[in-house]
Amino acid sequence: MVTIKVKDGTPQGAETLCVTCRWARIVKGFSASQEEIHCGWRWRDRLVQFPVSQCSTYDDKRLPSKCDMEKIAWILLTKQAGRTIGFVTVKQFREIEGDDAEIIPAASVEPKMQE
């Protein structure tokens, strides 16, 4: 008996990559066969007509986006150029920066809403 092995063949039971993509818009009906997937990567949605295994514009929505990471990032400033930046205690910070140094809470980085 001859065994044939196919590399990178069609995966059995694999879910389409679009399910976890940030750009996908998935519309499901009541039946399992009633499902439409639209790719919104460009300005106009395109209907995806087959299960996707690889995509050059895939963006995993389970992971934070670059914009989300920038929103939660700490902004570290120093008074002197060339000084090492890192985490220090409040006491060490006061010794390095002086007693007049302002500590800005992380919540104040977000823009304030107008009332």
Strand order of the largest sheet: 1-2-3
Shape: elongated
Mean pLDDT: 80
The major pleated sheet works out as: 3 strands, antiparallel
Summarize the helix and strand pattern as letters.
Answer: EEEHH
Catalogue the unreliable spans. Answer: none
Structure description:
With 115 residues, the chain is low in regular secondary structure. It has a domain at 66-106. 13% of the residues lie in helices and 11% in strands. The chain contains two helices and three strands, in the order E-E-E-H-H. The chain has helices at 66-72, 90-97; strands spanning 24-28, 35-39, 46-48. A hairpin with a 6-residue loop joins strand 2 and strand 3 (46-48).
Summarize the structure.
The chain is low in regular secondary structure. Helix content is 13%, strand content 11%. The chain has a domain at 66-106.
List keywords for this structure.
3-stranded antiparallel β-sheet, little secondary structure, 2 helices, elongated, 115 residues, 11% strand, 13% helix
List the topology elements.
Layout: E1 24-28, E2 35-39, E3 46-48, H1 66-72, H2 90-97
Antiparallel strand pairs: 1-2, 2-3
